[in-house]
């Protein structure tokens, strides 16, 4: 399979790319702004399975025209796309009176706009039967428990969920499936930075295992769905 993953410098994205590589005979484009971490990821993946090929593009998806670099790498190294995993995310934990315009632009830019632009610009490259997976959060699910300080983060993840439903309908006739995984807490660097001292029930590698399998197989059963992946209720 030809696979594109964003947010791959650490945590769930890093571990998911490793699992795609370990599956064998995959070509994976890993996207992140951290070049050194991408180089380490490529090295780690090469040890997992020599039949998979890892390509990297160090670009900030919060910046302008990032999508042109990704498209160029896809065209030159993958040719087509079977899986797009929009995993990149930004989280600022602050109460309403401390949030800034910059915080708004960052979280909606990374959590919603970048996913939209990735999908839009890769449209000519998706194979029939391709699967787009957007990584959201339980905080973006209506009726779920909400937390102080996460108003903008949850709102941006909710927007990503609605975007998923809309694009699933729009792309259905093209044979492209679009689903959204609303993740519960997983022990990642981003979570630790936002909530020091909190211990999540799942680790990044465990969550990555579910995401990798769903990305490769979930479109056989689901399209346009917002699926909670959490041990907590509701």
Mind explaining what this structure looks like?
With 234 residues, this protein is α/β, with parallel strands linked by helices. It has 7 helices and 9 strands. The protein has helices spanning 11-23, 35-48, 66-78, 101-122, 151-171, 189-194, 204-217, and strands at 2-6, 27-32, 53-58, 81-86, 126-137, 177-183, 186-187, 202-203, 226-229. A 7-stranded parallel sheet has the order 3-2-1-4-5-6-9, with helices on both faces. The protein has a two-stranded parallel sheet with strand order 7-8. α2 (35-48) links the parallel β2 (27-32) and β3. The protein starts with a strand and ends in a 5-residue tail after the last strand. The mean pLDDT is 91.
Please outline the helices and strands:
Layout: E1 2-6, H1 11-23, E2 27-32, H2 35-48, E3 53-58, H3 66-78, E4 81-86, H4 101-122, E5 126-137, H5 151-171, E6 177-183, E7 186-187, H6 189-194, E8 202-203, H7 204-217, E9 226-229
Parallel strand pairs: 1-2, 1-4, 2-3, 4-5, 5-6, 6-9, 7-8
